[in-house]
Amino acid sequence: MGPAELVQAAAMARRFYLEGKSKIQIAEEFGVSRFKVARVLETALERDLVRIEIRVPAELDAERSDALRARYGLRHAVVVESPADAATAGVPASGASGGTAGTAGLHAAHGGQGVAGAGAPGDDSSDPENLGEVAADLLGELVTEGDVLGLAWGRSTIHMAAALNRLPPCTVVQLTGVYDAGTADRGSVEAVRRAADVSGGEAHPIYAPMLLPDSATAAALRGQTGIARAFEYFDKVTVACVSIGSWAPGISTVYDMLSEEEREHYASLGAAAEMSAHLFDAEGRRIGRDLGERCITVEADRLRRIPEVIAIAGGRRKAAAIGAVLRSGLVTSLVTDTAAADHLLLETGPGPRPALDRTDPDGA
Question: What stretches of 31-76 show up as alpha helix (H) in DSSP?
Answer without folding.
Answer: 34-46, 62-72
